[in-house]
Amino acid sequence: MEKTSRRTGPGVRLALLLPAGVAMLAGLDAALTLLGLPAPVPSDRLADVHGPLMVLGFVGTLVALERAVALAPGGTDERARPWAWAAPGLLGLGGLLLVAPAPLVAARACLVVGAAVLVALYGAAWRRRADAAIAVQGLGALGAVGAAVLWAADVPVPYLAPWLVAFLVLTVVGERLELMRIVPVAPLAERGIVGGACALVGGAALALVWPGVGTAVLGAALVGIVALLARFDVARRTVRGTGLPRYMAVAMLASFAWLAVAGGLWLVAGPTTSGARYDALLHAVFLGFVMSMVMAHAPVILPAVLRRPLPYRPAMYAPLALLHVTLALRVVGDARDAAVVVQVGGVGNVVAVLAFVVVAVTSVLLGAPARPGRDQRAEPPAAAPPSPTAANRLEVVA
User: Which of these, 17, 65, 27, 16, lies nearest to 354 by C-alpha position?
Assistant: First the structure.
């Protein structure tokens, strides 16, 4: 057991995390190119792979690493799963190969296999504890496999976007479902979220053959899931708190609003694979929902993964607010067909993400405040067990 622990210590986890950071920076660089603006590293290839790079290479690696850590043996009676680290390893390698001048087929193969191992991780989690929340996240991982396989078959990115959306949304929603259980949850909430997850994956499949029907199902599923989250998620309670719990709740409630915007666009406007509506819809999900959730959970996930505390500081609100304000500006620019406004909003999005990284790194280096008060009590201690599952986040939201 000790030998396994050493192999998967903080150094190994950091090494698996670094490719996600490279993918994020390359994806932000590509975002500037797609906006028609000068980028630090001009590259048509990065612009072409922007979506899979950010979703599978960046967020996918983070999700897989978290899941691999969560499946570390919980006791002497559990066996180690060294193969679990292949999921973040392959997804991260796939992201690096997308950035490097390597054959695209090699990157795509790594992403396909990495996503498949991620599905296996959720299978292992299900065998440990059969649960609706795990099932929802597993369905999300199937969305990652679908996206990776379709892209490997040369399906254009706009047509596999629903699969990428299903992956990210269901991964987050599954964890939110776990956290709802700190208070008794009505059966409607659990059944509704499981049904919405099935509809989301089904809508992604339908959109390939019947785009009109598929996108209507996708939109209805997103709107229904948001309605359940808005009604039952614990963020409604914790937003009245202080410190880290309140910060996380603010970020999550704002993310729910953006997911509703995306669902409404699919439900009302129908299929879209290019232009202003496409830009607004995708960034409502990938920035407004997903990146806001990343900012919300970073103070909990990163310490659990790397065993290095990321203390909450009020300065974290600044990049969070900038993200949502500039995204709103971008969507208004899309609605008005105002290219300059979209560019300004897009640059603001990039600055917000980079600013959060700077704030987070600074907070880690400074350590906890000298006199932690009530606002700091929810931070996970440095010696906390390395399991970032939602069950181990109850101290934050309680």
Answer: 27
